[in-house]
Amino acid sequence: MVKMLTAVLKFVADATAMNIVTCSQDRCLNFTTENMKYIIANLREHSIAQLQITEEDLKDIFICLKSSLTYCSKLLNIMLKACEDSSCQAGAYSLVNELFNLIVSVEEFLGYRYAARLVTVIQPWVPDMILALGSNCLGKQTPDKGVCSDSSENAAFHLPAWFYNLAGVELCEQRDTNSDDDTERDQHAKDFSALKRLVETMSMLLKSNNKILDAVGAIFLTSSLSALESKKFDVVLGLLHFVCVKLVRPEDTEWKELKLMLASIEEIYPKVEREAEELGNNESDRQKLYSAKALLEPVWASFIYDERRHSMEDE
């Protein structure tokens, strides 16, 4: 089945490269995304069923997965160059998240060795993955227009599955490895070394272009707001740690140029503060929100509160 799906993905990528499907680009993206979801679901089912797979079969499966990843990345590259309408942007965003999900699933079900090899394969396509990840926001970069306000209405801003894994990895890094209260999920997150390696590459590349950094950072901030609204406070803390420690540190002067991210933080900060105050007796969740607030506070104080105060003084 995986071989057949790989052949189909090759056909779609080749047909797109030859401009045969110029009128159906969004459908190609959606079809490819659904194929990737099916492949990931099959990986999960085989793992749960604990089927006995020979080493030779495993090698064949990996070759198909590697080829599928390459064809999807090629399609993403072509679409980002050729198509600028909103449906293609949404399709590119959905597809790139499935590529991240595939890396995570391979690492979870087949092991780090295979996932690391996939990360090596996908390295040349990381710039395209970054553009696809920020594609929904790149056209919205005006000082008074953030992305958080419409996140609940736009399905593209719902949390992708790999964001949960990323949040878990960030929480592991943040906490003392000798702490007695490490959760089972945190312990599991330590295994996602291939994802961590891929995200580190992405973070490094993002720092070379503030416009794209702003768009991608806003996606993570919007997702942290979505997690806050869903009461997933560990995800909130993990994603905010990634943004405020890995992407842009609070003291970085780049914040002045990151209009979308500042607009997002302007919405998130008071909501985190209010949620912490309104929590009942759950001290663990309250501490997560206090930690999240502490990550945002320097940016809020330096780039949002001060600007508001100066604006009022000028009036």
TrEMBL record:
GO biological process: mitotic sister chromatid segregation
Keywords: Signal
Signal peptide extent: 1-17
GO cellular component assignments: condensin complex; nucleus
Keyword Signal recorded: yes
Protein name: Uncharacterized protein
